[in-house]
């Protein structure tokens, strides 16, 4: 059955595999290492895609690892109980980790470490649509009854991991740091090769041209759709019914097929108010 949120410090979280004491422990006690490579996103912004790219950069394009180990084991979400366990018990392997936490609840140890973080930002209107289609058919979180309802929840921040506006504003304060790279979903779609090159530069990794081609080939939307280790393997059917995939459409601008003119106007007003003062070049979408 669908559940309500669990709340911690006024942020709503999906209630499966997440609980307030865990978030507190992750925030206060989890020690991140300088060699950690962290994917941070607001949900539905391209998290899995970036993890696939990072995994493939690690294997120099060889798809064996991504095809044999689930995404959430390769790059555990530290804000879930199972992911936290994978992270603290992991003895070897690449130091990839993931999180959807807002900045104020992120492990404190990060802010004095040299761990590298990549934050992916996506057009929040598309984030809203992607989230609506995911949460309404899964039993991982509070289920919206209609897009109208979810639209209201989104503007209020009553959706998993809270307000998009607060999440992005919070993390954008780190964008000039040497160990933080901000990417956009839209840029990744437009020019994935340049994005992979940028990530390699940031991580100090070099790929041969053929290896770069393999990274791109194996992280394409189609390749990811077909990768059984990517689309929530092993998650019980009562939580994620068969056939539901993270890879839904993988396009930019799907919001245009859904928003009414009144919703577009209301959304843009909220955006202007909440994101005032941030440079417009951070928000490269239409
Ligand atoms: S989650 O559940 O919060 O971790 O979801 P997340 O991975 O952040 O985002 C899911 C959306 O990313 C799209 N996606 C991709 N787009 C383009 N190319 C590739 N390779 C790719 N992989 C995943 C996915 O389809 C979801 O967006 P929507 O709009 O729902 O299709």
UniProtKB/TrEMBL annotation:
Q: Which Pfam families match?
A: Sulfotransfer_1
Gene Ontology cellular component list: cytoplasm
Keywords per UniProt:
Cytoplasm, Transferase
Subcellular localization is given as:
Cytoplasm
Enumerate the GO terms in the molecular function aspect: sulfotransferase activity
Instruction: Show where the Sulfotransferase domain sits.
Output: 34-278
User: Which InterPro entries does UniProt cross-reference here?
Assistant: P-loop_NTPase, Sulfotransferase_dom
Write the Enzyme Commission number(s) for this entry: 2.8.2.-
UniProt family annotation: Belongs to the sulfotransferase 1 family.
**UniProt name for this protein:** Sulfotransferase
Please tell me the species this chain comes from.
Answer: Dipodomys ordii
